[in-house]
Design goal:
- The protein is an alpha+beta fold.
- The chain has one domain: Gcn5-related N-acetyltransferase (GNAT) (Aminopeptidase), CATH 3.40.630.30.
- 46% of the residues lie in helices and 20% in strands.
- A seven-stranded mixed β-sheet has the order 1-2-3-4-5-7-6, sandwiched between helices.
- Helix 1 packs across helix 3 and helix 3 runs antiparallel to helix 4.
Length: 199
């Protein structure tokens, strides 16, 4: 696993844009229409930049998979974050969807019991490389890193077929949000033994 830098931005965004081209949760956020692909790309650019500010971005060793991790306890309002929010609003969601997005984010936040945790915002594999284990390897490396230092890992998925995969990798469903589609919130608890050893 590689911790990404801004030099990896283009490659990471390309992986994620392709991976989430047909995703209900993404469709909920973007305006849609003829510029749909550009809006998905803008969403991934926003997420990448926010995670570089207030979290971490990871790539598999061969750069075929990408994971964006946000650390909400480190998030704060800065001139850069305001600039990113405005860009997201203009290029991705539009004003009409702001209320829906904020309500969804509040519901997700309320499902997170701890003040300090890692939020695996997006995890994607280049479409031609899916099904080869790259996603599982990166998922396990990311979750092991954070659970070892005492941070549970949360994520959301709207893809029903991914639920068995996440469960196989140690996640449990803690809540289902009904937003016109089902959004599942999952959690992986900290590894107590590793966390104690780390501390």
């Amino acid at each position: 696993m590689i911790e990404a830098t801004y030099s990896d931005r283009k490659a990471a965004i390309e992986i994620l844009t392709q991976s989430f081209n047909s995703n209900k949760s993404v469709e909920y956020v973007i305006r849609g229409g003829k510029n749909r692909s550009a809006q998905i790309k803008a969403l991934m650019e926003y997420a990448f930049d926010m995670c570089m500010l207030f979290g971490n971005v990871y790539l598999s060793d061969d750069k075929k998979a990408c994971g964006l991790v946000l650390l909400p306890h480190k998030k704060k309002v800065t001139l850069k974050s305001i600039e990113l929010d405005i860009s997201f609003l203009l290029l991705c969601s539009g004003i009409k969807k702001v209320s829906k997005i904020l309500k969804r984010e509040e519901a997700i936040k309320n499902a997170h019991a701890e003040n300090s945790y890692a939020h695996l915002w997006f995890l994607g594999v280049a479409p031609k490389e899916q099904g080869k284990g790259y996603g599982s390897t990166l998922l396990n490396e990311i979750t092991e890193l954070y659970t070892k230092i005492g941070l549970p890992v949360y994520l959301e998925t709207s893809t029903l077929s991914n639920l068995p995969w996440y469960k196989k990798n140690g996640f449990e469903i803690i809540q289902e949000l009904r937003l016109g589609y089902s959004l599942f919130i999952l959690k992986k608890e900290i590894n107590i033994h590793h966390a104690l050893a780390w501390n």
